[in-house]
Design brief:
Order of helices and strands: HEEHEH
Strand order of the largest sheet: 1-2-3
Distance between the termini: 59 Å
CATH architecture: Alpha-Beta Horseshoe
Number of strands: 3
Radius of gyration: 18 Å
Number of helices: 3
CATH superfamily: Ribonuclease Inhibitor
CATH topology: Leucine-rich repeat, LRR (right-handed beta-alpha superhelix)
Number of domains: 1
Pfam families: LRR_NXF1-5
Helix content: 25-40%
Protein name: NXF1/2/3/5-like leucine-rich repeat domain-containing protein
Shape: elongated
């Protein structure tokens, strides 16, 4: 800067914190409804974060809190689901799946 003042910039790597609001849940339900194929009983959540309906929210399934919210919405709204695609969501932590699969 011209006056010699130095600016310190700190950058934290990672994804933003997410609060799952009721409004966000409603948008997630709409996005899931558009991606559900009743003939196959299949739900395609590939690149879910890029869904145009969710553009105002950070809805990355790589965040466990978001993924768990989506799973609960599936349980409540699509109990007949037989196939689920989670491709291209950069899900890295899979150890919480064992608790879901056991229940």
């Amino acid at each position: 800067m011209p006056d010699g003042f130095k600016i310190s910039i700190k950058v934290h790597y990672g994804t933003p914190n997410v609060d799952i609001t009721q409004e966000m849940k409603e948008k997630i339900k709409v996005a899931m409804a558009n991606r559900y194929r009743p003939v196959n009983k299949a739900l395609d959540l590939s690149k879910f974060h890029a869904d145009p309906i969710l553009k105002d929210y950070f809805c990355g399934l790589c965040k466990p809190i978001v993924l768990l919210a989506v799973i609960h919405l599936i349980e409540e709204n699509i109990p007949e689901l037989e196939a689920l695609s989670l491709n291209n969501n950069k899900i890295k932590m899979l150890n919480f799946w064992k608790n879901i699969l056991i229940n």
